[in-house]
Amino acid sequence: MRFFLFDRIISFSDIETIGVKCITAGEDFFSKHYDKKRIMPESLLIESLAQVGGWSITVRSEFRLFAIMCMVNNVKYYKLVKPGDRLFLRTNIIEFDKHQAIITGEILSDGEKVVTIERITYILVEIPKDYREEVKRRYLFVSEGLPGGYRGE
Length: 153
Prior knowledge:
This protein is α+β, with helices and mostly antiparallel strands. Helix content is 20%, strand content 40%.
């Protein structure tokens, strides 16, 4: 990934992953989005959830597969996101094989729903063997290792 729209992974299992994103007034997307109101673009909320799901798929595949989002179904928005909000991005893998993966997810802030997504579908691409360690390093860096102390060594 070129940029991450989550700050950290705080929980990871075979099925469920939870990431956190703290929204600050200095976020790049605020500079040109809605002149008078600083709100996070809804498309970036989808992307942040998709990134947490893609992260979990790549880690679960032991860094052999890279997830590329190709379809999103049934997105519902409940609340605007503004500077100072702390987002919890929860994803659950509902299907996973060597060609595709499907997750469901939601974003919460202060215990309230921000976004729910019924399905995000990914196509899976094999990561070349000589690039897997670099992907692993980047993914574990952004997540500060895996919860529970695992750092990929």
